[in-house]
């Protein structure tokens, strides 16, 4: 079994376990005995692949090591003319059209002629081992190499945190729908037992009719949106420095993740933007009151009483968390223990995560189980020369994209809290 297959089986097992847990969490309940056994089984199955994955990775590393040791050498035995050997003699063009690679490719077309309307054609490469890049065959210019240190220092990116708070589901459609309650039943009342078979309203009669309840719902539809970014690169750069491909891939994926985090909070809902939590209708607000700690505590009460939700986390900008961290009492003592008393970040007992996507001067408190990200297509990387004139310029476009939908299933489960006077 290949490394890719092993990783895929582990992923499938973990996803199955996660989906069961997500269902229970979405219904605000614990796991049933049957669900618990299934989750345990999937977890054990996923763990069983770890040793096999490490072994397959070691095999791949060994293969790459052997290939690197033989780089620039012809390890095959010399081939006789006419048995797949590189074509000899004649001009470069003659040697190209007489090569086995070209002949095998051109024979795919009727009569060996490429149709005029054919598009997206690409022949296999033909190697010419005696073709040097110096001024002549005696030139050593092609073999002069820069001493590359291998040191790479990225500019750095913001740490991500919001994505770890919301629920993650998957979808195979371009639209997701969910039902949101808009009016809850509030008509329950103590009811006396009837003492008449036909109620007329006369003195002493008890009707005994139970009050009728009323509720209302709305159907919400969220469209799957695409987040994408691409970079141009030369084929030579990718071939001469294989690590460049990995670095570019990571940069593109990190850029997608940064944009996704910003969309979850601040998407304005227009065009291809998500409707982020901060712009979702029905989200509660808490105005500034006296100081940060007082306002924050009142926001918890508002969320519990008005929103009927139990908060699971705060999201604040790092600068605002610094302000909170440095708060002192009248004796100059830090409320949070100062530089030597740091532990898990909490505010009034509720976990805090910092995010650069959160605007300064405001905090977001909520039950983060009430926000769901549906994955349609996880982040993928593709490389192609089918962009403008990239093919003839030996360039490629490296594209990263993901597709997902996002929705807040209960807006009143979140509250925007002012951390400054007048905000």
CATH homologous superfamily heading of the domain at 222-418: Major capsid protein gp5
Sketch the topology as an H/E string, one letter per element.
Answer: HHHHEEEEHHEHEHEEEEEE
Show unreliable segments.
70-75, 132-143
The total of helices stands at: 8
Strand arrangement, major sheet: 5-12-9-6-8-7
First-residue to last-residue Cα separation:
59 Å
Structure at a glance:
The protein has 423 residues and is α/β, with parallel strands linked by helices. It has 8 helices and 12 strands.
What this model shows, in words?
With 423 residues, the protein is of the alpha/beta class. Among the domains are: 3-64; 222-418, Major capsid protein gp5 (Major capsid protein gp5 fold), CATH 3.30.2400. The chain is built from 8 helices and 12 strands. The chain has helices spanning 3-26, 33-69, 92-97, 100-106, 235-240, 242-266, 292-305, 318-325; strands at residues 167-170, 175-183, 216-223, 225-234, 284-286, 313-316, 346-347, 350-354, 362-366, 371-384, 395-408, 414-418. The strands form 3 sheets. Strands 5-12-9-6-8-7 form a 6-stranded mixed beta sheet. It has a 4-stranded mixed beta sheet with strand order 1-10-11-4. A hairpin with a 2-residue loop joins strand 7 (346-347) and strand 8 (350-354). Helix 1 (3-26) runs antiparallel to helix 2. The radius of gyration is 32 Å and the shape is elongated. It starts with a helix and ends in a 5-residue tail after the last strand. Residues 70-75 and 132-143 have low confidence and may be disordered.
